[in-house]
């Protein structure tokens, strides 16, 4: 099969164009997958201390910061980011982490009993996960404790009720 010079030229251009498109598509896909893999997050799981069930729809604020205390971090611009959201129906909140992982995460909620405020060490949460029970007066009485996973903090608390707000 003999091709004319013009046909060969067209064939080479079309082949080059297809190769370039494949290379560009592969490069874009590779870059996106690296960005997704690099994006880390801390998952907070809020669990009711009486029932062990998720606590949905409570307001939660997460502050990522560096330094010796949140008060000094606020003054010295050590606060990296702040996220305010509500828990999902499964009692979950996801706090995205920046590329340079901060030292601390302070979690607070005015909707939880005793106006919850917890300081977590981010590296510990990422490595092994943590479980925090916020109220020592209310010991967990279910058969199995929730098991945290790396990157997850299980927070055992209670959603604040009208009776908790006005204990008279």
Q: Note the gap between the termini.
A: 97 Å
The beta-strand count equals 8
CATH arch. level architecture of the largest domain? Sandwich
**Overall domain count:** 2
CATH superfamily of the largest domain: Carboxypeptidase-like, regulatory domain
Instruction: Assign an overall shape.
Output: elongated
* Helix count, DSSP H or I runs of 4 or more residues: 4
Q: Approximately how much helix is present in the residues?
A: 25-40%
Mean pLDDT: 78
Strand content: 25-35%
CATH class of the largest domain: Mainly Beta
Structural class: alpha/beta
| Helix-strand sequence | HEEHEEEEHEEH
CATH fold assignment of the largest domain: Immunoglobulin-like
Low-pLDDT segments, ≥5 res: 31-38
- Write down the Rg: 25 Å
Q: Quick one: biggest sheet?
A: 4 strands, mixed
> Which strand order does the major sheet show?
4-1-8-7
Structural features, described:
This protein is 30% helix and 30% strand. It has 4 helices and 8 strands. Residues 31-38 have low confidence and may be disordered. The radius of gyration is 25 Å and the shape is elongated. It has 2 domains: 1-38; 40-165, Carboxypeptidase-like, regulatory domain (Immunoglobulin-like), CATH 2.60.40. The longest helix is centred in the first third of the chain and has 34 residues, at 5-38. It has a 4-stranded mixed beta sheet. A 4-stranded antiparallel beta sheet has the order 3-2-5-6. It is of the alpha/beta class and 168 residues long.
